[in-house]
Structures are given as C-alpha cells and as structure tokens.
Amino acid sequence: MGVKLKDIIKPEPINFKDLEGRSVAIDAFNTLFQFLSIIRQRDGTPLLDQNGNITSHLSGILYRNSSMIEKDIKPVYVFDGKAPELKKETQEERRQVRNESEQKWKDALKKGDIEEARKYAMRSSKLSPYIIESSKKLLTLMGIPYIEACGEGEAQAAYMVKNGDVWATASQDYDCLLFGSARVVRNLAINSNLGNLEYYELKKVLGNLDITREQLIEMGILIGTDFNEGKKRVGAKTALKYAQNGKLETVFKEFEKESNQNLEAVKEIFLNPTVNKDIKIKWKKPQNEKIIEFLCGEHGFSESRVENACKKLKNLNSGQKSLEDWF
User: Fold this and answer.
1) Per-residue model confidence (pLDDT) at position 89
2) In the chain, fewer beta carbons within 10 Å around the N or the C end?
C-alpha cells in the first residue's frame, strides 16, 4: 500500500521505447499480489490447475514478463526479507482485511451475486510458500534473475538503483521514493500492453516540491506509512504546507510526543535500511522445454499459448535484443 503521495507529485510522460535496453528492479510481492488479485475467473475464483493449485501468479509472470522482454526491458525481481518489527501491526491489519474479504466473497457466491463476489475475491489474495517458490522456479526457467532482500523489497530495489545494478525501481508504492530510489516506474507489471506508465525521478520530485529527501520522509510519516499510524487529518497537501512554511520539524516532533510512537526509528528504516549487498545479476538463456513441462505438464497451461510466450523470450520478430543477448 505504502505512503499516499499521489496528490502532490505528478508523473513524467514515459513510454516503453524509453525503457528499451534498461533493467528494472520489480517489487516481487507487490507484483504477485497484483497478479493474484486481477487474474481471476468471472466469479472471483483464481486460476487453478487440475490439482487445485493456484496458477494466476504463474500466468502473470509468464505473459507479462514475456511481453516486457519482447520490448527489450530487463526485469529483475526483488523478494522481501524479514519485515521490520514496526510493520507487524500493518501486516496484521492486512491479514484481517483479507480474511474478512474471503468470507464476504464466499457469502456473495452463495447469494449468486457474481459482481460482489469478484470484488471481495480480489481483496482476499494471499501469498503462500507455494506461490512464492513456484514463482521463483518459473523466473529461473525463464532466465530472469531474482534477489532476496534482507528486509523491505523497496529498500533493496532503491539500493540497486543507487549502486547501478538496475536503472529504475518498478513498483506501485511511492515508498520507493522515501527509500531513495533515484528513478521509479509505476504500472509496468500490471499490464505491459497498456500505455499508462508513470515515471518519477526523485531529484525532480524533491526539486518541484522544494524539499529534501529527509523532509519527504517526515511528510510521509505524518501522512502514515506501513511502519506507523499517521497524524489525523494530515494528508499529502497538508504535510507539504508544513514543509514549505518551515513548520514540518516542529509538527513532526510534536506528533512523536503525542502519538507515543518512535518516529525516529521509522525515519531510520527509510534512511538506513538493511540491504543485501552481496548480489549478482545475470540474465540467462530461457529453458523453453522446461517452461513447457512445468506449466503445461504440471499445471495444465495451453501448450500453444506457452510456446508463443516462449517465442517472445527469444524476441524473434524484430531487430531488438533478445534475452539471450543479455548474458
């Protein structure tokens, strides 16, 4: 979910041509939740194989990534590590929402209300060990590298951008800016065939708002993050006014006292996160036969559709670089 900055920052125009030949660190959990929420049957039931295993995420990984690769975009997935203690409350709240949504989905199905059922089904998506491990297996077969973060995936991705390992972070959360990612692309993994990409350059965002990154973090904390409850009646516009009027530091300190929250610890999560520095990024040749065996043989995918996706991995229809040219 992340901090809500939409009201005060505007994306720069960008298209897929601008991303050709560039590598992007994709927030894996964020993206998997998108796939699990969106790729469902009409009544909200996720895609399932013959054994009842969910395959929505595998469908998303194959088709969306093959489309990106065909456009000469180099994906690198980043999986979350252990979440900070301060995130436990947020995680518990999200679990409750998903459990409640799952029950409302089942109730709507009993009533025959398909539209209502699908709405709640989309909110009930959960990541299981099976979903995470099968996602990693498919990425490996496709030749797409993934990184295990020590903590927050967005923090790891921001570090990778700063270190020159990738060009930008691809995530729906604005938290990436608070973590210091120099470049952020939104809507990349939702549907790579849609022209609704959003691009944010941290330096320009800060310049347009006339604030520092530390002020952006303090504003985010006042608004509310995954690690703290925000100040009542303070949204992005109000927080920005505090910064521009020279009142942000005072309001921040007062809020820390009245809320009894360790907001300096929250700032530290954004300013100095624990990251995995021992990483190696390497794109490999896709194992097409094993992809077909895994998706079609084990999970009942259409062989012709999977074969067509595999052709995109080779990028046969243009002079663009193929995945095989990247390693």
Assistant:
1) 85
2) C
Domains in the chain: boundaries: 16-205, 210-271
User: Is 268 in a helix, a strand, or coil?
Assistant: helix
CA distance 25 to 298: 29
pLDDT at 324: 44
In this structure, which amino acid lies at residue 88?
K
Structure tokens at 17: 């041509």
Q: How many CA atoms lie within 13 A of 249 on its CB side?
A: 4
- Looking only at the bridges linking them, the beta strands covering 23-27 and 168-170 are parallel
Single-letter code of the amino acid located at 138: L
The reported pTM is: 0.90
Instruction: Check if CATH label 3.40.640.10 holds for domain 16-205.
Output: no
Task: Identify the CATH assignment for 210-271 out of 2.60.120, 1.10.150, 1.20.1630, 1.20.58.
Answer: 1.10.150
> What is the pLDDT at residue 189?
65
Under-50 pLDDT residues of the chain: 192, 316-327
- Residue 197: is it exposed, middle or buried by C-beta count within 10 angstroms (0-12/13-18/19+)? buried
Q: Are strands 168-170 and 183-186 parallel, antiparallel or unpaired?
A: parallel
pLDDT of residue 195: 55
